[in-house]
Design a protein that fits this description.
72% of the residues lie in helices and 0% in strands. It is flat. The chain is built from four helices and no strands. The longest helix is centred in the C-terminal third of the chain and has 32 residues. By secondary structure, the protein is mostly helical.
Amino acid sequence: STYCLPPSGLLEGILSHKSFLLLVASEALNFLTAFPSQSYATWWTLNGWVQSDIRLFALSIAVLSLPILMATFALLQRMSVWGPWAMRD
């Protein structure tokens, strides 16, 4: 006798589960933006940017990202604890 795996239902449920389709769409968009986001310095150099301008821009993004992320997650934590104003009153 041979061993047969039970049906998983993975292929049967591809079109019926909207979350799976959204996951596939988000992965496709992620892969479309992966290459340009990894080689932005090359693209900007080819467009006439100077390396010092690219370095300054990348450094400013790195410096500004920290307080923006800290504020975002602090506000998300506050919203998860207290809820929106409409639900508090």
